[in-house]
Every structure is written in C-alpha cells, then in structure tokens.
Amino acid sequence: MRKVVLVTGANSGIGLALCERLLSHDTEGLHLCLACRNMQRAQAARSDLLASYPAAQVDLLQMDTSSVSSVLSAAQEVKVRYDRLDYLYLNAGIMPNPEFDVKAFFKGLFSSNVITMFATGEGILTQKDGVTTDGLQQVFATNLFGHFLLVRELEPVLCHEGRTSQLVWTSSSNAHRSAFNLEDIQHRTGTQPYSSSKYATDLLSLAFNQHYDKQGLYSSVICPGFVMTNLTYGILPLFPAILWTLLMPVFWMIRVFTNTFTLTPYNGSEALIWLFRQKPESLDPYAKYHSLTSGLGNNYTQPHKMNITLESSESLYKKLLQLESDMRRKLAEKEKEAQPADPSVKT
After folding, report:
1. pTM as predicted
2. Burial of 191 by CB count in 10 Å (0-12 exposed, 13-18 middle, 19+ buried)?
3. 60 with 3: CB under 8 angstroms?
4. If we measure between CA atoms, which residue out of 170, 160, 165, 159 comes closest to residue 279?
5. Which end of the chain is less crowded, N or C, counting CB atoms within 10 A of the terminal residue's CB?
6. 347 residues of the chain, pLDDT tens digit each
7. Which helix (H) or strand (E) holds 292?
8. Number of C-alpha atoms within 13 angstroms, CB side, residue 201?
9. How far apart are alpha carbons 282 and 215 in whole angstroms?
C-alpha cells in the first residue's frame, strides 16, 4: 500500500526539494499530494517531478493557508480523495519584506554576532505584517493558524487505530521566545511576526503531541538552516541578484566555521527526509531537528532541545481552539448572510 504524503508549500524551495527527495527515496511506494496556493506554479512543479519520475503518483491540491475558507475547502477535498494520510508536512510560510537597518548590518559584519545575523536577521530586520480578509494577521494565519486548522480538519484521515501518522513542521532558527507573547499570539503589536509565528510553531507541535499521540499521531519540528530561497532573497529586496551571487563565496566560507549554512533547498530538506525514515513514536517532542551541512558538504541531522514549556504550549493550544471556534462562527454567519432570501416567505 502506498504511503500518502501531503506537503504544503510544495511548488518551490524546501517543499519542492523535499518532494524530489521523497520520490528518489521510494517512487513506487508513495502517493504524493502538493498543496499550493498558486496552481500554475503547482502544475509546473508537478510536471518537473513527473519528468524525473514518470511512474510517480503526484496529485495537486489548491490551498491558501492564510484563508480559513480555503483551508476548510481543501481539507474536505483531502477527506474525499484519501482514506488516510501517513505524513503531513506543514511547510508553507511567508516572511514579509523587512525594513533593513544598514548601519546595524555593517556594524554586525565586524562583530562576533555575524553568523547569527546572516542566519536569522537578528538585530538588523523589522517586519510589517498585513491583515487577511478574515481579519487575521497575515503571517500568523499563513504560517501557523491555517496549518492548525488543517490538522484539526484532517483528524479522521490522520488518526487511525493500529497505525501511526506524522506531522512535520518547518520551523526556523529565528524562532525566538522573546518575539512571542501569549497575550498577543497574532503578534499584532510587535515587529517580528515571522519569529513569533515560528516560536508558536514549536509550542504547537508539543501541544499536538500531548493531545494526539495516544491516537497514533505524532508531531515533530525541523529547522532547515540558512537556505537561499525566495524567502531569503526577500530579506534584502533591494539587493540586486548579482550581489547575492557575489555573497555566495562568503557564505561558503562561513560554512567552514558553522554547519547551519545549508544554503541549498536540497541540503535544507535533510531533516525533513531524515524524519521520514524514523519511527515517529521514538522521536523527542521537545527537540527541533536541524538540517546541517559540514564544511565538506556532507548533510546530516541533529536534534536540539527547544526553549519551550508544556504550560505555554497548552495555553497557546487553548487560545487557538477558541480562535478556531470564533472563525467558524463568523464564517457560518457570513455564509448565511450570502444565501438568497426564500421567495416563498412573505414579509
């Protein structure tokens, strides 16, 4: 029986690299579903995968994790198509174009914090978030809440007696506790929405383990390292492409001193593919599994204990449940208002 694997944000970057590696690992034994917002890009990604693996079974699913109605609709489609999911890779995410502090950047180049600065943008970036049509903060909705809602909707195909299934979240080394506030889980008042959403991801993964592992559903978190993707290029949107090319030798040199500079999506997906080969019940729910690349270019995975507590994870989980209830109620009211009036009813 083929393993059913759904990957969000699968049309480019780390998500696409994961799909390529999954198919190279076991083409015949997988049923792969690419869940993407842009279907034109998703179709192009599917074509590329099938060109390399003609025998692969690759489906497409339209889903925008920033939209509550899109997530609910996509989840219904998944439950119609598949009677089970073995792996759900929660990879889709956005990072708003930040404001760049040039002075702090050049000062950081000559400090002991230079590696962290390049890897996370710490100290040199502030971000301006947007608001979705549902009234949610855009980064929070896209990176966290949409995935939370997806998992909740897919319980019937994720949880089955007698077998295990796995959630795998793409987090970040930029998941700083200092950026997250339980009293402002959407990060409405802060300037680090991406960091806040990724720290919340770490907390939520732990909460899911507490609530679902007895049903055979396990959750893990990975960090892809510093990878050159569209998100990375968005850190410095005004930098010309040639400048990134010129910086690459510097990044390769830095990798001699730190293993976190994975640089390519293929390398960054190392922890994702490593988790695919593990028994989920044997994994540490408090660990973040890091993709690492040595100075010689060898990829490996290493766990690091996350700076999270069970108490905070439970508090976040309860707040997300309440928000889910509120959003479902608002959506039901909106749908009711949109229904045409019954002509048989006289006023």
Report:
1. 0.86
2. middle
3. no
4. 165
5. C
6. 789 999 999 999 999 999 999 999 888 899 999 999 999 999 999 999 999 999 999 999 999 999 999 999 999 999 999 999 999 999 999 987 666 555 666 666 666 676 666 655 555 566 678 999 999 999 999 999 999 999 999 999 999 888 999 999 999 988 999 999 999 999 999 889 999 999 999 999 999 999 999 999 999 999 998 887 655 555 555 555 566 666 667 666 666 667 887 878 999 999 999 999 999 999 999 999 999 998 888 999 999 999 999 999 999 999 999 999 999 999 998 888 887 765 565 54
7. strand 287-293
8. 35
9. 15
Residue 212: partners with Cβ closer than 8 Å, 6 or more residues away: 158, 159, 218, 219
DSSP string, 65-83: TT-HHHHHHHHHHHHHH-S
- 116 by DSSP, 3-state: which? helix
Do 11 and 35 meet the contact criterion of CB atoms below 8 Å apart? no
337/347 Cα distance (integer angstroms)? 17
Q: Mapping DSSP to helix (H, G, I), strand (E, B) and coil, where does residue 59 land?
A: strand
Which distant-in-sequence residues (6+ apart) come within 8 Å of 140 by Cβ?
129, 185, 186, 187, 193, 196, 197, 200
User: What amino acid positions are annotated as catalytic residues?
Assistant: 194
Please tell me the total number of residues recorded for the chain in this structure.
347
